[in-house]
Amino acid sequence: MTANIYYEKDASLSPLSGKTVVFIGYGNQGRAQALNLRDTLKEHSLPDPPKIVVANPKDSYAEQATKDGFGFTTDWADAASQADILFLLVPDQVQPKLFNEKIAPTLKKGCAVVVASGYNVFYKMLTVAKEMDIVMVAPRMIGTSVRSRYESKQGFPCFVSTEQDGTGKAKETCLALAFGIGALKQGAIESSAKEETLMDLFAEQALYPVILATFREAYSTLKSLGCSDEALVHELWLSQEPAEVFEKCATDGFIRQLVHHSTVSQYGQLKGSMEVDTDWMKKDFKRVAEQRILGGEFAKEFTALDKDGEGGVQRTIDGLYSEALKSELGQGEKRVRDRLGLKTV
Hints:
eight-stranded mixed β-sheet; 8 strands
């Protein structure tokens, strides 16, 4: 299966002319995308450029919006009532209640709702009138990188999709916005809320948990064989060798980056990876993908964490951190970092 990839030549900024673009949330992605859009509009001298409005609680992010020259409003409903295009960039768990209760009732007919994650669209947690558009413009990098790579003219990877075309112009709007935030310079991949949600949650609930567990068990095994905490922490991650390996995966290819390793390493990694018993992994990956993600088990579980009021999600995460830090790896790393005077977030 081959996906379409869109570049700047495939889009126009004209669908944004004369519009009011509202950013709900000025955090990590909100700030980067708003600044990128403003700079693109200035660079291309769009006739009758859109007005940009920022809505955010009165906090440090709002102060930053003021410093950046946007100003802000804390009135969600009023901001939404102005929107021809509305970027919904608050955290996933906050979106449904905020959108459905305070934003959706005041939106104009024909407004385009823009999400940077497919989560709430795929699980149908947002109530969007059929006359409106829903589009996804989802950068695959954190907001600071979305901004820095825009400024350096490198561009950044991004997924785009049209999820609901109430106006008949949703795709044009989607590509115009992707162009505006700088997502078409490197090429934006046509995806869907389902695909983005599946891949994103799969990485978080299947792939990276295996990596975390692998490092944890490797640490305990090697420590039981006499390796010191200091040597283990440096060998396994503090040297930043794993970070360099993954950087080479991106620049040189996931497999071919191995040519930068010693012949002993190349032989060991290639042969060892082919001998790992992956039957349990395939079975568990299939379970996570089909039941936890596509079947909705995780979404129900996650939503239920806040059923008794806000804060349930964070309390649960804090408890998981506490448990994880009790492991030999967690305790060993703390001793090493304390000894070396290294900060821990």
